[in-house]
Every structure is written in structure tokens, then in C-alpha cells.
Design a protein that fits this description.
- By secondary structure, this protein is of the alpha+beta class.
- The protein folds into two domains: 2-49 and 294-440, no CATH class; 55-288, no CATH class.
- 49% of the residues lie in helices and 19% in strands.
- The chain is built from 13 helices and twelve strands.
- The chain has a six-stranded mixed β-barrel with strand order 3-4-9-6-8-7.
- Strand 7 (170-176) and strand 8 (182-193) form a beta hairpin.
- Helix 1 (2-13) packs across helix 11 (346-379) and helix 9 runs parallel beside helix 12 (405-431).
- The protein is elongated and about 105 Å long.
Length: 441
């Protein structure tokens, strides 16, 4: 306890020096904590936003193969899927059904290639919450034309600008059916949405029944079923449970994880396993984590970058700490000699100075974490808008931060160790001084 009191007293003797070194440590902790906090919420926000755009956390599709080898992607019998969901016990918020195709949109001699997704607009509230309309309305999607079809379409602002279309303009689409035959249809522009960040051209949205009609999908069928679960952190666990239950009821493709597949994991939906001989219907399970596997890699890179920044900052700070403690030793030569003359052992002298460095590190860490908390609090209160270019990274238009206790503890331990190491060499040299030499100085 006496050594602790001596270390604290010594820190208080040179307040300006202590504040300067502690401030440098606090600044390093502040920067690294902000990066870690942003990276922690990055994957969750992107996943939540994409789950609403893609209509689920778990996705099950099916491929039908006839005896002559022809295939088509269609869920004609959903009972194995629904039965597996019930048997697995996976908690479900809601289930969605979608079909999609890639086609060419034409308007007054201009054409644009676009992926078009069919959604049930009477049920999909998640999609309505996520899409930000700059013109038109969701109610236009429920309008029925003279032919009895709901053929409205929501285009992103970029696609609408490239086609030079406005609300109520009619655009022609050319695409392939599930049997790979050419087909033509007509859409009416019902709304124009804001481009959601880097992924603004991901899809246009239309009515599920009309998309199925263009694809020549039989009534009551579709291409993909999406499952929302209440806990986004439990996606992988829920997928394994559902996969086991589905395997007992149907022929299922092996699980393809985004981290294991060097190609785009979305292409797994269309991979029918040509290297295997089979006929009938085969189901495939894909998760949001598989689709966003590259986002996980970005988070790892951000955390890695934060660690590198931390090490670089503290290597620089260590130089300052080492030089400062050399100055401290020079200033306290007579004091060290007196303590040694009174019987204090060398290791206790060394320990007193290392405790001083340790308390300096702890003080800087506490201040840095406090400042990071204040910055994150105020930044998270700034509404960036749902039409922000970084919309896909935000949660309802706000920045969010998520810190893992393990990361905070690891950063704190690293900083403390580096600070103590920086003070060790001059402290050890001071402890090895002979009392007579120190008093003579």
C-alpha cells in the first residue's frame, strides 16, 4: 500500500506532465474504441437492412428437375418447408414468399438491365419500412389495371433517371420464364425509391402474382420462401436446426456457406448440382450470413485496422513515456538514493515506478473510454435521414455503436502492458543505482 501511495503521489507532483501523457493514452483509446464500436454495429445494421430488402433471415428455394434433365427454380410444394419449420422449433416472426427474374426494361428506345423482385404488398410491412420513396406511393402498387392485373413497379431513382420515366409511365420488360422461354410484359411505374447506398440498383419491386405470371409459375407457387427470426444473432444456429429438419422431409442440397464458397454465395441459389444425378424436387437453404459473408470480412478488417492503429499510436506514445521517465529518474536521483539508503530494496524501487506507469495507463484508459462514450452518445443522436447515402450502414437513420467487453478488455490490457514496458528500462536503471552514487549526485 505504501508503494501505491508513493506512485500516486509522484503522479500528482507533475500534473502537467501527467495530463499530457494520460491525454495521449486517452486519445489512442478514444480512436480505437470508436472504430471497434462502429464495426460492432456495422454488420448488425447492414444485416437488418438487407433482411428487410431481401425479406428474411433464412431462405429456402427449390429446383425441379425432370427426367430429361430440364430444370426450373420453383417452390411448387411448400409443405416440406412449413413442416420443417414447425418441427425444428425455430422461432418465427413472419414468413414471406417471393419470385424474381433479371430482365431488360424498355422505355422510348432506352433499355436497362434490372433484377425485378415480386413481393406481396398486402403483407410485407418490412419492405415498406425500409424503402424510402421519393415519388409515388405504396398504394399505387395495389392498383388494378383494366386487365385485372397489379402490374405496378417501384424503380430506384437511378434506374428511373436512366430510363427517363415518371410516375404512371408504362415500361416494357423482356425476360425468361422458369422454363427459359422468352416472354414480354408491361409495368406501370408506381413509385420511385431512393437508392439505398452502394446497393441502390439491387432490385426493382413488383407484385408477386404478376411476376409469377410473367415467369409462368403456376398459381400458388413461387421461387423463394423467406423466414424472419426474432434474434439476428441466432441465424446460423437456426439454419442448422432447420436444415436438419428439412433433410428428414425432402431432398436437400448440401449447405453452402458464404465463407466456404469463393464465388458469390447468392449464385448458390441457382446452382442445381450438375455433378449429381437426381430427379424430382430438391431444396436449398441459404442464410443472410451466407449472402453477407463479405460484410463479416469488412468487420474483421476494421477491427484489425483498429488494432494496428492502437499499436502504432502506442509505439509513438511509448517513446514519449520512455523519455519522460528518463527525465523523472534524473529529477529524482537524490530521492531514490535516500530511499535506498533507508533500506528500500531495488525491486521495490522498480515496482514503485512501474506502478506509477500502470496508474498513468489506467487513468488514460478510463478517460479515453469515457470520452468515447460521450462521443458515441452524441453521434448516435444525430438523425442522418433515411435517404442518406450511407443509409445501409445506419439503423433507422441513426449511427449505432456496439462494443464487445472482450475488445475493451483486450485494448486496455495491451495499453497497460505497453505503458509499463515503456517505463521499465529507465525504472530498472534507476533501481540499480547505488545509494552512495545517488546521494553524491
Amino acid at each position: 500500500m505504501k508503494l501505491v501511495l508513493i506512485a500516486l503521489r509522484n503522479l500528482n507532483r507533475q500534473k502537467r506532465r501527467t495530463y499530457l501523457l494520460g491525454g495521449a493514452i486517452a486519445f489512442g483509446i478514444l480512436i480505437v474504441t470508436l472504430i471497434n464500436g462502429f464495426a460492432g454495429s456495422f454488420v448488425i445494421n447492414v444485416s437488418e437492412n438487407f433482411s428487410q430488402l431481401l425479406a428474411g433471415h433464412l431462405f429456402v428455394s427449390a429446383v425441379e428437375r425432370s427426367d430429361d434433365g430440364r430444370e426450373r427454380r420453383i417452390v411448387g410444394d411448400e409443405q416440406p418447408i412449413l413442416g420443417a419449420l414447425e418441427a425444428s422449433g425455430v422461432p418465427i416472426v413472419t414468413v414471406t414468399r417471393r419470385s424474381d427474374f433479371s430482365g431488360a426494361l424498355f422505355f422510348q428506345g432506352t433499355s436497362v438491365r434490372q433484377n425485378i423482385v415480386g413481393a406481396d404488398w398486402t403483407r410485407e410491412r418490412f419492405l415498406r419500412d425500409r424503402l424510402v420513396l421519393v415519388d409515388g406511393s405504396f398504394e399505387n402498387m395495389l392498383r388494378t389495371g383494366a386487365d385485372g392485373r397489379r402490374n405496378g413497379i417501384i424503380l430506384t431513382r437511378d434506374i428511373a433517371r436512366r430510363l427517363n420515366v415518371e410516375i404512371d409511365d408504362r415500361v416494357v420488360v423482356r425476360m425468361q420464364t422458369v422454363d427459359r422461354q422468352q416472354n414480354v410484359g408491361e409495368f406501370v411505374v408506381a413509385a420511385i425509391s431512393f437508392d439505398p447506398g452502394l446497393f441502390g440498383q439491387l432490385s426493382a419491386y413488383a407484385d408477386l402474382d404478376y411476376v409469377n405470371e410473367l415467369l409462368l409459375v403456376p398459381a400458388g407457387s413461387y421461387q423463394t420462401i423467406g423466414v424472419f427470426i426474432p434474434d439476428i444473432q441466432a441465424i446460423d444456429e437456426s439454419a442448422e436446426t432447420l436444415y436438419a429438419a428439412l433433410t428428414e422431409r425432402a431432398n436437400v442440397f448440401p449447405r453452402t456457406r458464404g465463407s466456404d464458397d469463393p464465388e458469390n454465395p447468392v449464385a448458390a441459389l441457382f446452382d442445381s448440382g450438375d455433378d449429381e444425378e437426381w430427379t424430382g424436387t430438391r431444396y436449398r437453404l441459404l442464410t443472410l450470413n451466407d449472402i453477407l459473408s463479405e460484410v463479416q470480412q469488412i468487420v474483421l478488417l476494421l477491427n484489425g485496422a483498429a488494432l494496428v492503429i492502437l499499436l502504432v499510436l502506442f509505439l509513438i506514445i511509448m517513446v514519449g513515456i520512455t523519455n519522460t521517465f528518463r527525465m523523472i529518474m534524473f529529477e529524482r536521483v537524490k530521492e531514490i538514493g535516500t530511499m535506498r539508503a533507508l533500506g528500500m530494496q531495488r525491486r521495490r524501487v522498480l515496482l514503485s515506478f512501474l506502478l506509477e506507469a500502470g496508474f498513468l495507463a489506467i487513468g488514460g484508459i478510463v478517460v479515453g473510454l469515457a470520452l468515447a462514450g460521450v462521443v458515441m452518445f452524441f453521434v448516435s443522436r444525430i438523425f442522418m435521414g433515411l435517404d442518406s447515402p450511407i443509409f445501409i450502414l445506419l439503423k433507422n437513420g441513426y449511427f449505432t455503436f456496439r462494443l464487445l467487453p472482450v475488445q475493451v478488455a483486450m485494448n486496455s490490457v495491451i495499453v497497460t502492458i505497453l505503458t509499463v514496458l515503456a517505463a521499465y528500462v529507465p525504472s530498472r536503471k534507476a533501481a540499480q543505482m547505488r545509494p552512495v552514487d545517488a546521494l553524491r549526485a
